[in-house]
Design a protein that fits this description.
Elements: H1 3-32, H2 38-60, H3 82-107, H4 111-133
Length: about 140
């Protein structure tokens, strides 16, 4: 395996692990929200955002996008063709599916289903973001 392929493998492994950490932490936060202390909720929410921003850093080299990274070409959404628009809509629908699965899972305090739902939610976001920007986050 070449050095470049190793680096790409490690990058995507780190990215996937961080998104799974964010998904699981989000599931824990949601399921325990009714009975948990504020410090627990603060900690788990902090883990969610830290993992998400770290995955963003792995993918883009920066924690947060600035004005200089916004797409200035194409239409108002920055989409240049039909394929990008379809990807954006599909990602949005996947994201919403995660919410639809997640709400009853949270209500029933089902951690496994909530984790699945939050993973679907993040996956939809990643699909939509990639369609619009060609970056995973």
């Amino acid at each position: 395996m070449t050095k470049q392929r190793k680096r790409a493998f490690l990058r995507y492994t780190a990215f996937t692990a961080l998104i799974l950490i964010a998904s699981f932490s989000l599931a824990l936060t949601a399921v325990r929200a009714r009975i948990a202390s504020y410090s627990y909720l603060f900690f788990t929410t902090l883990v969610v955002w830290t993992a998400y921003l770290s995955a963003h850093k792995v993918e883009t080299g920066r924690f947060i996008d600035g004005k200089d990274t916004q797409n200035q070409k194409g239409n108002k959404l920055g989409l240049k063709n039909r394929k990008e628009a379809v990807g954006l809509v599909a990602g949005g629908l996947i994201l919403v599916l995660g919410m639809i699965i997640g709400v009853p899972a949270v209500a029933s305090e089902n951690l496994v289903t909530t984790f699945l739902a939050s993973s679907i939610f993040f996956s939809g976001y990643i699909v939509a973001h990639y369609s619009a920007t060609k970056e995973l986050l």
